[in-house]
Every structure is written in structure tokens, then in C-alpha cells.
Specification:
mainly alpha; Sodium/glucose cotransporter; 74% helix; globular
Length: 512
């Protein structure tokens, strides 16, 4: 216990120290939200990766999908690295940085406003961002606090409160630069920690080959998937490859439409830094995401008991159970690992949400003339509000006996599906297609957010394959990519002025 507490004290001290140190960079809106657009490739790449992978991945997704798909869940991590990191940086990175700078947009809703010449789009997209980032944040609290309960015996509510206060302090003090530096430190902890944990867990079962042999002997229940052949949990595609593909799509392609992820490209200091950041981000994703899902794939040989093929305590209890027998020092590293993953993502979410609500929803719509100091004050207030609401939802979810939203993966599925379904197509086409229209953007936002709300409220009315919020989110993204160009064909074309404002000179800068 002394070792665990010592690790936490050192971690907290460094985190708060960074926040205080970065106060000088957060004295204006540009510095607070984007770090002055001067963040280097290493910090940006780690900020992207740590915002991507959190306790939702390590505790929620790795546990649930490792249990369901066995070793084949590693494909989710591979998809995250290739599609969610490598291709996202290649396709979106440089063009996003250039166009947002040309348009003078600091947030995704501002991009929609200026790219499509519509203040209504800015207001609608900012509301969608704020509403659907809340369940995602609640899922972060959930995953982290379950591990703390297991390691310290501390009540869930106290864990949530402690994490809320700590994250709030350093984000409010140092803004984006504080989150970027802390993300770099936390990312290094995640890289070292996941490698150490995998080695220890597999070592307790005779190494990789011994663990694989044990996993191959696990019988596949009929409820686990359509393929019930012996050894399916140790096979390349697992017992349920169709639903596995849905998870890969949601967790990989979804990042292309998430405001807190795309905003990292806004802040990088130059277009040339994108190339280096691409390599760093991809490497980070391979180790962290690939490692998390690879570890979760061995859940069924780690003594996790189940009733009707559902682990006792739920899927979120799988990874904490796997870690129970590890040495004390390694448990301490795991705690700091998951804390790092969660706080880095949480800081990104609260900063994105507060800046969006202030700059895109209130400023210009309800308060016409808002001075910069007042904008900073309101953003800091909304950071507190956002954290408090999310923490209350997280505590209620665990304390409530209704079980309305049972698992971390469901919370994240609803959030990612709605955000990516609403924003992916308008953002991607907006970067590349001069014919992208305002009407198509409205349609995708309504469709993406609407179908996920309907799935949450009327899930049993959906086709069986779409009753999972994961699959429904993946469907929302793919459907929006088809809906957008179809509506563009029949809707009013953007004005010549709008096109020139967005694309004049971009070709020359891309070739520079």
C-alpha cells in the first residue's frame, strides 16, 4: 500500500506542477485552447494517442471484447493503429492544419460555420459536442474508479471526486499546453506499463505459447458467437467476426469525426511536423491499443468466473480481476497507467467541451460582444460544470440498481457513434470537396445524433445487428458518408465566395 500511495503522490505532484508551470501560456483564448498553435510533433502525437486510449480501452473495451472474441480482439488494436492513427494523420492532419488556420477556426463547430457559411451549424454542432461528450467522460470515471476500488478498497464515489478535482485544477490552470505536456508524460507511463503488464500476465501462464495453448482449450458457448468450434478464442478471427468488424470500424474510423481528436491537428506548430507526428502516433497506437486488446484476449484463462457467459461483476470487472495476482510494484504501475490514460483523455474532453460551448454556443449567439478575459473565465467555469455533470452520471450509473447503461463500452458506443456519425462526413468532405453543401451537413448531423438517441431509447425496435450501440455507431458513420454526397447532388451549391475562402492557396501550401 505504501508503494501504491507513493507512486500516486509523485504522479499527482508532477501533474499539478505542469499545470502551474503552463499558466503563462493560457492567458488568451488561442493559448488556452490551442497552445498558440505552436505544439511540436512529439507532444501532439502523444496528445492524440493519450486522448484516444483511456480507461475505456484498458478496462472497458479490452475486458469486454477480449472476453467475447478472444485473441482476435487484437485486430481492434491493429485497426486503431492503422485506420484510427496512421490514416487519420495522413488524410486529415496536414489539410486540417492548413484550412483551419486559413479560416481562423479554433474548434470543429467554428470550422463548420466558416466552411459552410452557417452560424446555425456552429450552434447545432456545439450542442451535439457538449451533450455527447458527457457519457464518454462518465465512462472514463467508471473504468478508472473500478481499478482503484480493487487496488485500494476505496469507495467508487471518492475515486471519481479525486480524479475530477485533480484534472480540473491542471486544465483550468494551464489549458491546452498543460494537457499536452502531461499527455506526453502520461503516454510514456502507458507505453512502459502495458508492456510490463502483458509480460507478467502471460508469464504466469507459461509465456505466450503456454497461454495460447490454454486459451485454445477453452470451450466456446453458443452465446459467444456464431462460430462455436473448439479453439475459436485462440483463432485469427474469433467466434464472432461480424460484430468484431463493427468494433474495429467504430473505434478506428470514429476518431476521424471526434472534435477532441481532430483538434490536435489544429494546434501542431507546422505542416512539416505532421509527418513526424504520424510515425510517432502510429507507433504509440500499436503498442498501447494493440497491447490492451492482446492482453484482454486472454481473459478467459485468468480465473474470471461467469454466469451465462457474462463475467461476474460485468465486463468492466474482467481486467481488474486479471491483475489481482500481480506483484505490488506492478499493480502500482498499472494504477498509474490507467490513471494516466484516463486523465489525459478527460482533460482533452473537458477542454474541447468547454471551449466549444463558450466560443461556439454562447459567444455571438447569446452574448454578442464578449471580451477575451470573459471568454477565458466562462471556459474555466464550464470545465467545472462539465466535470461535475459527468462525475454525477458516473456515480449514479454504478450506485443505481436500474442498470440502464450497464457497461463502459455501451456508454462509449453511444458517444462515439453520435459524434462521428454527425461530424465525420461533413468534416472529411469539407476538407476535400468544393461541392460539399450546407444542407448535407445539416442532414448528417441530424441523422448521426438522431439514430444514436433512437438506439438508446428504442433499442429493441432496431434490427438485431444494430441493437448494439457499437454496431449502430459504425452504421451511422458509414451511412453518413453515403448520405452526404447524395444530398449534395440535389441541394443548393455553396457560393463562389465560400469556396474561394476555404480553398484559395491550399494547393500551394500542400505542395510546399
Amino acid at each position: 500500500m505504501v508503494i501504491k500511495i507513493l507512486f500516486l503522490v509523485v504522479f499527482f505532484a508532477i501533474t499539478l506542477g505542469v499545470g502551474i508551470y503552463c499558466r503563462k501560456t493560457a492567458t488568451d483564448v488561442n493559448g488556452f485552447v490551442l497552445g498558440g498553435r505552436s505544439v511540436g510533433p512529439w507532444l501532439t502525437a502523444f496528445a492524440y494517442g493519450t486522448s484516444y486510449f483511456s480507461a475505456v480501452i484498458f478496462i472497458g473495451y479490452a475486458g469486454q471484447f477480449g472476453w467475447k472474441y478472444g485473441l482476435a480482439s487484437t485486430w481492434i488494436g491493429i485497426g486503431n493503429a492503422i485506420l484510427g492513427s496512421l490514416l487519420a494523420w495522413v488524410v486529415l492532419g496536414r489539410r486540417t492544419r492548413i484550412m483551419t488556420q486559413m479560416l481562423g477556426s479554433a474548434t470543429m463547430p467554428q470550422f463548420f460555420e466558416k466552411r459552410y457559411d452557417s452560424k446555425a451549424l456552429k450552434v447545432i454542432s456545439s450542442a451535439i459536442t457538449f451533450i455527447f461528450l458527457i457519457p464518454y467522460t462518465a465512462s472514463l470515471f467508471n473504468g478508472l474508479s473500478r481499478l482503484f476500488e480493487s487496488a485500494f478498497g476505496i469507495d467508487y464515489a471518492y475515486c471519481v471526486i479525486a480524479m475530477s478535482v485533480l484534472t480540473g485544477i491542471y486544465v483550468i490552470a494551464g489549458g491546452y499546453m498543460a494537457t499536452a505536456i502531461n499527455d506526453f508524460i502520461q503516454g510514456i507511463i502507458m507505453l512502459v506499463g502495458i508492456v510490463a503488464v502483458i509480460g507478467a500476465v502471460l508469464g504466469s501462464h507459461g509465456g505466450f505459447i503456454g497461454s495460447l495453448n490454454e486459451l485454445a482449450k477453452v470451450p466456446v458457448p453458443e452465446t459467444a458467437g456464431p462460430i462455436t468450434a473448439s479453439g475459436s478464442f485462440a483463432s485469427m478471427f474469433g467466434p464472432d467476426p461480424v460484430n468484431l468488424l463493427g468494433v474495429v470500424i467504430l473505434t478506428s474510423l470514429g476518431t476521424w469525426g471526434l472534435p477532441q481528436m481532430v483538434q490536435k491537428f489544429y494546434a501542431i506548430k507546422s505542416e512539416k511536423a505532421i509527418s513526424r507526428g504520424t510515425l510517432i502516433s502510429t507507433f504509440f497506437a500499436v503498442i498501447v491499443a494493440g497491447g490492451c486488446y492482446f492482453l484482454g484476449g486472454f481473459a478467459r484463462i485468468s480465473g474470471v468466473e461467469a454466469i451465462n457467459d457474462v463475467p461476474i461483476g460485468g465486463y468492466d470487472a474482467v481486467i481488474p480481476k486479471m491483475l489481482e495476482g500481480l506483484p505490488t510494484l506492478l499493480i502500482a504501475i498499472v494504477i498509474v497507467l490507467v490513471l494516466s490514460a484516463s486523465m489525459s483523455t478527460l482533460s482533452s474532453l473537458v477542454l474541447t467541451s468547454s471551449s466549444t460551448l463558450t466560443l461556439d454556443f454562447i459567444k455571438g449567439s447569446f452574448v454578442k460582444n464578449m471580451k477575451e478575459k470573459k471568454q477565458l473565465l466562462i471556459m474555466r467555469i464550464f470545465i467545472v460544470v462539465f466535470i461535475v455533470i459527468s462525475a454525477m452520471i458516473a456515480i449514479y450509473q454504478v450506485k443505481s440498481e436500474s442498470g440502464a447503461v450497464a457497461f463502459i463500452a455501451q456508454l462509449m458506443g453511444v458517444s462515439w457513434g453520435a459524434l462521428a456519425g454527425a461530424f465525420l462526413a461533413p468534416f472529411l468532405y469539407g476538407l476535400y470537396a468544393k461541392w460539399a453543401s450546407k444542407a448535407a451537413t445539416f442532414a448528417c448531423m441530424i441523422f448521426g445524433a438522431g439514430i444514436m438517441v433512437a438506439n438508446l431509447l428504442f433499442r429493441s425496435s432496431f434490427p438485431v445487428i444494430l441493437q448494439s450501440p457499437i454496431n449502430c455507431g459504425a452504421f451511422a458513420m458509414f451511412a453518413s458518408l453515403i448520405i452526404f454526397p447524395i444530398i449534395c447532388l440535389v441541394s443548393k451549391k455553396p457560393s463562389k465566395e465560400t469556396i474561394e475562402k476555404s480553398f484559395t492557396g491550399i494547393k500551394e501550401r500542400l505542395e510546399d
